[in-house]
Amino acid sequence: MNAGLSTASAEELAALRAQIESLQSLLRNRQIEADRKTHQLRELETTLKIETFARERAKTKLQDLLRRLYGLKSEQLSADQLKLLIEPLEADEQLLQERPPAPAVAAKEKPARKGGGRRKAPEHLPIERIEIDLPEAEKAGLVRIREEITEELDYQPSQFIRRHYVRFVYADPKMQTAPKMPPLPPRVIPQAGIGVGLLMHLLVNKYTDHLPLYRQEQIAARVGVELPRQNLCRWVEHSALLLRTIHDRLRERILASGYVQVDETPVKVLDPDRGGHAAQAYLWTYLSPLS
Question: What's this model's pTM, rounded to 2 decimal places?
């Protein structure tokens, strides 16, 4: 009788162990499934945030398009302008569909702390050497052993120069041929009397440093150089024509990049056909952020 109970108890214990192991395996599988669903939920939350941002951006652009289409006549868009404004929305949708993995963010290196005091002048600057020597009576019988150099940073205003192209003319003593002289080298603006350096200085001041032509005229007048504003305008116009080829190639490259951002800036310009009144014009800036 006792042996039968002992055998039944052993079988029950084995069955209980098998049930416990089965339950433990089931719990592990459910935990793995729960972790997988949690990861999927986080991915869905991230996708939802991105799509919400894109939807809000599209909504803002749509409201702007509706305002331009049905608003004041001066704010209405042409078909080409409408196409340029819709293309970024299509590009955003494509980027959402083909979203690349987030790049690893490299740890930012803490910049070395710079101490105070005087900074050393850049090595590429030219050096003006000023020698200061003792009078002959004081250095009689002495030998120079070293140089004591004291450095300071200074500035010299830009200088205008006159460049003379001197061409030697040769003639036949027997006067049987016409005089000969070498041709002039190629010049940026023929017969304008302006060199490349002055032209580049004019353009950089105007378009990089935002210095108007009338101020450049005043600056030149302070050093005794007369540069009429009419001449400055003609030189800028001629330079723009020379750079037109580069502008056209750059525009073609940007428009062919597949993703273009465009900014429209309204400006007022004088209209000669309206008797001095200003007309509404637009300045379009193109940017290809992916190229």
Answer: 0.48
